[in-house]
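Standup, Tuesday
Yesterday: got the pipeline producing structure tokens again.
Today: sanity-check two examples.
Blockers: none.

Example 1:
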Amino acid sequence: MMNDPAAAEPPVHQRAAYTLWQMARASEWWAYKFAPILATAYATANFVRVPLLPLLPRLLLLLLALTVGATYVSVLNDWTDRADDAAAGKANRLAGQSGRAVLAVLAGCAGAGLALGVYFWQLSPWVAVFYLGAWVAYSLYSLPPLRLKVRSGWGLLADTAGAHLFPQLLTVTVVSQWAGVEIPGRWLAAAGAWALGCGLRNILWHQLGDAANDAQAGVTTFVVRWGARAGRRLAASALVVEIGSLGLLLCLGQQPLAYLALALYAALTYLRARVWQQPVVVAQPQPGQHILLNEYYEIYYPLALLLGQVWRYPSDGWVLVLHSALFGLHSWQRLRPWGAALAVVGSKVRRLLHRAGV
């Protein structure tokens, strides 16, 4: 008896969810963007000395709000990039999608985002400004007639604000509102400066890697207009701001495990560069690269903060479990080099012991 092919197909809702996941390019931002944002939530809770577990349902709401926004951004950006991608000979995920399907996704995201914006406004006008500000920044980035993406430095600012600055400021302010604690201005300023530096460096990395395609398509990004050298210099300046503000966050947070995590990350980065000959880059893409500090923000920093919270509030272990479930695969893939690192260290120790006659 032959199997019915239709019986092997997944249900309609599963196929729709998978299609939406692909359209949204969720694999490109889920762990890379959201783990550092949640790290800021953990750091803020640590800074004001409040447990995370009572905030857990609201942190999931924050994650939902960010997911809706990220889906809108990804779909809108790909849809408005179709002509430029075709001119550059690049594949576009939405090239085969109908305009009606894309419009339905965008309208659904916009409706959900507006509803969440109303909730945030009732919580605090500043929270709503930071949440909706990210939507406005990315809409201006992608949509004509302004389409800031092709307007050099304005494109840098719009992408940085939408992807990093506003989400990080949103996280600090919304956690403080939910916890009922006023956040000192120096903490908010340090988080904003860190997000600004990190965001600028990451969009410059994208522009440096895409410069040839952008030039071919006539997309006047900052790097296309001012050149790769100017892009690298600006990225180096952004890194100075990023490191300085990160140091201030660590100093204000007074979380020893975050320093330990940074030391462990630095040791692994040294091995990557000196032993494994893996290029560590600030912004200029290279084959086999490791982008400086991004892995710390995605893996080490949030885990260190959560472990510190668990030490102070053992019930926050449930938040650590949930974080591991959400980002565990990404974390495991990034932590696997520690096996090779321990092998290198063990080999050197054995050689030293051998020379000492032990």
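Example 2:
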Amino acid sequence: MAPDRGRAFVIFNPAAAGGRGAKRIPRYLELLDRHLPQLDHGISSRPGEEASLAETAIRDGCDTVIAVGGDGTWSAVADRILTLGRPGVTLGILPAGTGNDFGRNLGVPGDDPEAAVRILSAGHRTRVDVGRILGGTRHEEREVEPREIRFFLNVVGLGFDVAVVDDAKGARLLSGEVLYKAAALKQLFRFPGFAVTLEAEGGQPRSGPTLMLTITNGKFFGGGFPIAPGASLEDGALHACHIRDTGPLRRARLFLQAGKGRHESSAEVASQTASRFRLAFPGPVRFEVDGDVHTTTGDGISVEVCKGGLSVLAPEM
């Protein structure tokens, strides 16, 4: 990023990936000093502080906020940018998390820190879609009062997805796709299923006993699962994947198919693309937003796309 492109601030989340994010801080500081010298930075000291650090930087006149962590860290920063009504502020990302799916969808490598920093230094900005959740929701660990609007980068997930996120928390030996697969294999035999009604804008409702429902902005989620094979961050749409509940052996087969992006032809799977979805439940439910668990305060939410809603630093295609 050339000096005439504005000021930038870097936020490190050492708690990313169950604490493994701290190990990447020295390496990223070295690379940033080499490729993007004289950047100010801050390190979050408590869960969720990355959002307040981003707000302080933006109010101080920074045009670019670089978040170092995983999907939850990036999502928290993006949500604060958009909640402040600053869609012109650019988000930069450096992978140091568990899944890093938004980075994967954006084309930022999760296993090559120098290549990721070079993408930032090239300074190519593009606009990508983001999602918006409408309806009362609360972050399980960081919020007391519910919010009526929140933004996300990559995924809203319910059911089996949440069980896997819960199971993966606190893992120390595994990370990324391997961690999510290990957690998912356990939950194939434990998760009881749940009830939801999904209605795409202009479409017919779909309901019944459900294994999992994801509404994604990009192709990948869960540490690399191509849950929406035809999706992109720039198609102006969200992509719902509704999987009806079934027995453990059939669940295992669906899991294997999803890992290869071949699940959409299965009888239990319905994929839909729309600009807006309405979700209804028997009562409040837990759901995940970019890897962080939230709860609804009522019996339904809406999820919609904000086309080109966010400026990001990305590889030049």
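Quick observation on example 2: The first helix runs from residue 25 to 35. Residues 178 and 275 are 32 Å apart (CA to CA).
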